[in-house]
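Tokens in:
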């Protein structure tokens, strides 16, 4: 899940709409598959400390606790709405939930449960988060340094910002009367690097690196009388910077024009809407 900037604007940062766990969960199945594919490459057997940076509503983080029942699991997210949902799901109190932005999170700490200790973090996962963190290439070395010997760092980020879903969003925003207000939030997604950039960054610190891309061909259900499913998908993620700026008639006019463009780019068919989505994965294991 994406680690969200706080809904209240801070100097130099656009204001986004607050994260909505219910909207995000509409496509829980296809959103969760990349997380499973990423974790399938993690070979840790009995980690002591597992951290999910950008844990979102918590379902996937609880899966980490199930996979490694002997581990101390920490979920970190900056969205109070997402963490509220995560705590509600964690009836057994299996996970320590911590509110922090990725930029501010201290990897030497595992929240109120105490410091990570001299051995460090055994598994650090960040899934669909770093596109919201423009400084993450600078932060990754710090996170790697906090890993235990033999520890694993695993990331997944969207790599579809040139797809019609995002390109059309930017084009509609550029024609909008408030284009100058909308541009900063939409440009922020360009923080994602190319696969070879992640590979080089990780290989400078360990030879045990695996970087790859996958394009998922998602099939989204499409009610003929309902909103376009791609609009509903991005409403919970990439469209948030727009929703944080516009309201009332301005918002409705934007959504109407954008949805018309999506109808042409992703036509509704008898089986639904085909929504290709490319993601970049990277994993590094530190020397033991």
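Residues out:
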């Amino acid at each position: 899940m994406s680690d969200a900037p706080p809904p209240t604007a801070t100097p130099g940062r656009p204001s986004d709409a607050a994260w909505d766990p219910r909207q995000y969960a509409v496509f829980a199945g296809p959103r969760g598959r990349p997380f499973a594919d990423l974790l399938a490459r993690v070979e840790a057997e009995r980690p002591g400390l597992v951290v999910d940076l950008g844990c979102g509503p918590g379902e996937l983080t609880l899966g980490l606790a199930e996979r490694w029942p002997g581990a101390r699991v920490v979920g970190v997210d900056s969205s109070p709405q997402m963490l509220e949902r995560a705590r509600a799901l964690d009836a057994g109190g299996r996970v320590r939930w911590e509110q922090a932005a990725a930029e501010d999170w201290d990897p030497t700490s595992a929240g109120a449960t105490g410091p990570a200790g001299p051995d460090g973090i055994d598994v650090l996962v960040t899934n669909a988060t770093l596109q919201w963190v423009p400084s993450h290439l600078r932060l990754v070395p710090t996170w790697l340094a906090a890993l235990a010997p033999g520890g694993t760092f695993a990331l997944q980020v969207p790599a579809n910002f040139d797809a019609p879903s995002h390109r059309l969003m930017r084009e509609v925003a550029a024609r909008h009367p408030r284009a100058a207000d909308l541009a900063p939030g939409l440009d922020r997604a360009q923080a994602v690097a190319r696969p070879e950039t992640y590979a080089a960054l990780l290989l400078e610190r360990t030879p045990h690196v695996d970087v790859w891309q996958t394009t998922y061909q998602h099939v989204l259900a499409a009610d003929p009388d309902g909103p376009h499913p791609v609009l509903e998908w991005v409403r919970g993620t990439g469209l948030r910077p727009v929703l944080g700026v516009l309201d009332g008639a301005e918002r409705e006019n934007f959504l109407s024009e954008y949805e018309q463009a999506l109808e042409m780019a992703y036509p509704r068919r008898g089986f639904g809407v085909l929504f290709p989505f490319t993601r970049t994965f990277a994993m590094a294991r530190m020397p033991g």
